[in-house]
Amino acid sequence: MTATFTAAGLAQRFGLDVMGDGEVAIEGVATLAAAKPGQLGFLANPRYRNQLASTGASVVVMRVDDAREAPMTALVARDPYAAFARIATLFEPVADQPAGIHESAVIAADAVIDSSAHIGPFVSIGARSHVGASAVIGPGCVIGDDCVVGAGCELIARVTLVTRVRLGQRVRIHPGAVLGADGFGLAMDEGRWLKVPQLGGVVVGDDCEIGANTCIDRGALDDTVLEEDVRLDNQIQIGHNVRIGAHTAMAGCSAAAGSAKIGRYCLIGGGAGVLGHLEICDQAVITAMSLVTHSIREPGEYSSGTPLMDNRSWRKSAARFKQLDKLFRGMRGGDKESS
Amino acid sequence: MTATFTAAGLAQRFGLDVMGDGEVAIEGVATLAAAKPGQLGFLANPRYRNQLASTGASVVVMRVDDAREAPMTALVARDPYAAFARIATLFEPVADQPAGIHESAVIAADAVIDSSAHIGPFVSIGARSHVGASAVIGPGCVIGDDCVVGAGCELIARVTLVTRVRLGQRVRIHPGAVLGADGFGLAMDEGRWLKVPQLGGVVVGDDCEIGANTCIDRGALDDTVLEEDVRLDNQIQIGHNVRIGAHTAMAGCSAAAGSAKIGRYCLIGGGAGVLGHLEICDQAVITAMSLVTHSIREPGEYSSGTPLMDNRSWRKSAARFKQLDKLFRGMRGGDKESS
Amino acid sequence: MTATFTAAGLAQRFGLDVMGDGEVAIEGVATLAAAKPGQLGFLANPRYRNQLASTGASVVVMRVDDAREAPMTALVARDPYAAFARIATLFEPVADQPAGIHESAVIAADAVIDSSAHIGPFVSIGARSHVGASAVIGPGCVIGDDCVVGAGCELIARVTLVTRVRLGQRVRIHPGAVLGADGFGLAMDEGRWLKVPQLGGVVVGDDCEIGANTCIDRGALDDTVLEEDVRLDNQIQIGHNVRIGAHTAMAGCSAAAGSAKIGRYCLIGGGAGVLGHLEICDQAVITAMSLVTHSIREPGEYSSGTPLMDNRSWRKSAARFKQLDKLFRGMRGGDKESS
User: Fold this and answer.
1) CATH number of the domain located at residue range(s) A100-302 in this protein
2) Which chain C residues have a beta carbon less than 8 Å from that of B187?
3) pLDDT in tens, B181-191
4) What CATH number does domain C5-91 carry, 3.40.640.10, 3.40.1390.10, 3.40.50.880, 3.40.50.720?
5) Any idea what DSSP says for residue B245?
6) Maximum alpha-carbon separation in chain B
């Protein structure tokens, strides 16, 4: 049942060079620290170079410079981490998800399900929705009205597409994610909140990935949009009418408020927030738990917050923070008086 | 299938004045920037006033001062955004949710379901729970024991009411929300955590809205309470025994820890936190990602955190923050010595 | 139907001393402020000592010093809160969860379900997974392939174990939690993200508790690990390959990024974040919404952030924060020049 490959076979399949014995057999992958004979590891970060001597790995993916002194078979790659990622997919267990609709699923009469799609148990699919070729809709997913799931998409389990959500191809969505819920649109009207109807949808480009329990609200009038290859980690909140550029990645617990526009190739750190109606240019990096309070027009790294301190020292600094303006004014005043 | 209204008809229905041709037909709503002929837009924020000249909208809701120069039919409102919100509901697609219980639903023998309620597929409802008139329980919802869902409530899909959750009328809950889970009550006992039973419930007032994947824990002994017309966005965490006053709105990813008491008409920004056992008075505004570390007794706006900076500058300020107390002490010392 | 106990009976059952009438009957528990005759309260925090005179409670659990002047029957405990927690379990409603598999559940042919386990409606269980004795799998749970649910575990409702999740005994998981989703592993490869397969699993020790909508990703190569008696509140994000030591508790909305290692008996405050690959020693306390940006090697309390201020004052301090380095340099320069 376990797949076995030779180093030479892997090299050929992924366009790598072999240095050393190409016939050594590989049955799995592991970190250098944990690898045993018969396993393949990788060396990407030079910090771990000293593990080459002690690892049990039979084959290691590495750069050519490292390969010269490697005591085992080396697969030589310009980018060892990317090469390893490709090789590792060979050892990923594949769940049995045959084409067809589970007998418990509840599908609207006018929904269109490709015959090669897999629809799991306890799935419901609403009116006028489409599920494309080879798509996998795992157990407990809810797809509402007027949704499109593109070819090769995978909704792992318990994913909700509320309404008017259109997924491109090969979009992968993890359990608990909710796409297309009402945006948070409210008007105060004579002392009570008036709900503003959310008439837009959500458009997700090809090859996006959406993490577990992440939410993407649908737009108020226009759509909320993720361009292609956007990667969202878990527990993220995307407000209505946000637009996220291609190849941007957001780490866990980050959030973008309504109508924020985030560029391409941005990296948004864990727990970071972007206020509504701001624009962030391409290739901006926001460090963890920073709050973006104004638009960003230059690529680069941005931060807010204060460093971690022991609580006693922090209390002193925090107290001074409250006095900052007064203290500086006082000093300047003092300077003036003494001059 | 598309609804059509005349400007004059809308004016009459919503108590607005018409300026211009009242017979123009409206088939949809849009932003001024995106609107095409046959659509209705709105002008609330003066910043967008210049869009009046270029919009394709056939009708625009606006204030009387703007209407005088408008090149299209105007619907005149004191509060154009609220008027627009009301008009837009006419164009909201309505899902087909007929009265009755889906054959797959599992309902406890002693649960009471109003005959006008809609119970969707894969719903389970526990012992002694009640579902009121015209309530909609969408697919995959779990309602535990001893819950009450008031008339006109809508649980969109995959909502969980764990136990002892009592909803007023017209409460709307989005997918993935969990109400009535155990509060986080622990006692350290001889080196191990001892779980404190959570015997209270959750009470939610009329017209509240609860966002996707938001959690509201049930109380330890008394109840966790949301008064009427409270609006919670997505991914919010409300601890046990919290009380939130009427008409308060909390934005995405905000949180209130156990036994916090938040007043009426408060606005809690995205990602903001409220520590446990604090009190916040009515009409307090907490800006995004601020942490409320002490009770608030005066209405007004409150903040914590530092502004966003480029990372290089931020590192310098952050290093200085750590030294603040020492630096100020040194300067004062220096002042003293020099005087 | 309501259970009734005498003070003397409770004392005997839990190893406490009685002072006063041991025959008084108890039918419920409450806070001192809300308790009525027939109910039992507790006094743990000296701040509430003055409530002893006014409470309606017939019996109060308290320390011996307080008991001497108590106007009602006292149950004397060294740790009144822990003793109360134990007593309160007697009054917790018990849901009816009989052994057996609900007829709607979908179980893989090679899954092994103990005959004493309860499998609720709309549950799916994947290939090669095991559910142990007396475990309770509530409605709508999804258990994927190769999972183990230990004896006495309780998955309340709508919990997802994606794949390769192994729970010890008596683990309690609240609705919406997702364990074993893909870690957020990405490699940038010629301008596009390449997904790194996540081949590890999740291991959860005995007596852990996982809050509602909390996520624990599975490891990339090795496992993500929670040691025994770890307590996670709601909305928490645990990245791949994180390790959390025994008896550590994390409050709502906190997060630990990939490969972080948190020690034993730590307390992580609400909304706090731990960056990836860091180590936190045993018995560290992180205050709410702090960001751990470096490893912690000494037990103690740690913080970041700034205190809450009225917005006007905060704006001044925030502006000064940006100038901190310049201001300090200027002053030092000024000092030098003037000397």
Assistant:
1) 2.160.10.10
2) 79, 81-82, 85
3) 999 999 999 99
4) 3.40.1390.10
5) -
6) 88
